[in-house]
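F.,

This is the one I mentioned.
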């Protein structure tokens, strides 16, 4: 796919930085919810960026261990893309919306996840961030059938 057919990267895609092993669980297609402390107004495509930090206690959670079994846990790299379709909180006292949701957090609803074959080294940021054209072009080189 030619990037010339797409609007500038900052107009249609954002980045999200996520600690490992959570980032790999999402890229593997096992974790459709990402927990955040505040609402995200952005809807659309996200670069899945594995931050430099690893949540070591999470590696011992059975749900996580099953999702990431046999996978590398790269850090400081874009490892996939996903479409952010919604953001919600569970009502007070209601059961969690899914096995990956944390009470009191905003739940980013992720769909159409595509994992990259090769991680792309990149710097992430807190909150939704605008990726540069070069980074988006490198991602698209690995996702030949991708259509935003």
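My design for it:
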């Amino acid at each position: 796919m030619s990037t010339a057919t797409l609007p500038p990267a900052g107009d249609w895609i954002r980045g999200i930085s996520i600690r490992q092993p959570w980032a790999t669980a999402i890229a593997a297609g096992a974790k459709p919810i990402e927990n955040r402390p505040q609402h995200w107004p952005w809807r659309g495509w996200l670069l899945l960026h594995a931050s430099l930090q690893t949540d070591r206690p999470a590696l011992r959670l059975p749900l996580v261990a099953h999702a990431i079994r046999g996978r590398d846990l790269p850090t400081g790299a874009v490892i996939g893309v996903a479409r952010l379709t919604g953001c919600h909180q569970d009502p007070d006292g209601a059961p969690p919306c899914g096995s990956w949701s944390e009470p009191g957090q905003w739940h980013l609803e992720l769909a159409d996840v595509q994992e990259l074959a090769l991680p792309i080294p990149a710097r992430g940021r807190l909150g939704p961030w605008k990726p540069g054209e070069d980074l988006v072009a490198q991602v698209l080189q690995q996702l030949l059938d991708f259509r935003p």
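The beta strands are 13-20, 33-36, 44-54, 77-88, 106-121.

Talk soon.
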